[in-house]
Every structure is written in structure tokens, then in C-alpha cells.
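Thread title: Can someone regenerate the structure for this chain?

I was given the following input by a collaborator and told the matching C-alpha cells would be attached. They weren't. Posting the sequence so someone can regenerate them.
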Amino acid sequence: MSKLPEINVSFNSPLLPALCLSRREAGDIAGRLLNHLGMKDSRVNLIFAADPEMERLNRKFLLRNGPTNVLAFPEPSERSDSNFLGEVYIGVQALQREALLYGQSRFEHFIRLLGHGLLHLAGYTHGPEMYALNSELPQIIDPEDYGLKSNEPGLYSKDKHA
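Best answer:
Regenerated them for you:
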């Protein structure tokens, strides 16, 4: 039996309830994406952060001002066990702003941002191959698997009547 991905989820932002996901559910989604990408034995840290932390990390590591939506920090192979890929930071406030801007549900945009970060951990760089892989990821995760339904573009809420 193959080992499943191990995801450590941290909430450094009080705004995660806007996604209507628990720590377990967020980790499950990350694990499903890793499985789909062929990285079943991987370990990843997934951190949800607010704008100030995302801005600090963006400035420190990418020398860019302002908060960002997703940052990926691959673990250098010489310092890592073979299964630990690194850390993905999701900017919760940027996720909310962008979902509204792009007319996507927060859930779908979360999948896109998470997939983007995981692909960077897997060694992909920006370009057609990475974009094609990332564009298919929202179709493999059904929000209804997490008790979510769409009320209108940009929002998902727990379905209390299911």
C-alpha cells in the first residue's frame, strides 16, 4: 500500500473561516492535489497567512513590496529527507480579493493558488506546462466533497441542509 502525502496545516490568519474549511479539510485537499500530481509520498507544510506576513515574506525573499497571494519555499534537497518538499504560504486576504476580482469562488481560487505553490515545490517554473497543469486542478476537487455549495460567484458556504 502506498503512503499518502503528509500535510501539516497552520493558520497564521484569523480569516480562514471565509473559506469554510477546517485544518483537516485543507490538508486533505493538498494531499489530493499531490496525489494527482504524482507526489504521493510527499510531505508539505501549508500555512495560511494574513497580508502583513505575506508582505514581510514577499519583501524578504523576493524583494517585492506588498502582500502576495501564494509563496512556495522548496526545501533544498541537500538539507531534506527525500519526501519533504517544502512550505506553501497562502495569503488569505489576497485570495479573497482575487476571487472576487476574477469572478471565481474562494474555494476554486484556493485550489488554484495551492496548486501553483505545490507545482513550484515540485520544481516547475512559470510557463505553459505549469499553467496547463494548474488549470486542470480545480476540476479534480469537488467542493461538495467538503459540504460546500455555490451561492454566487466568489462565495461558497457550508450547506446546512445536506
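Strands lie at 6-12, 43-49, 70-74, 84-91, 148-152, 155-158.
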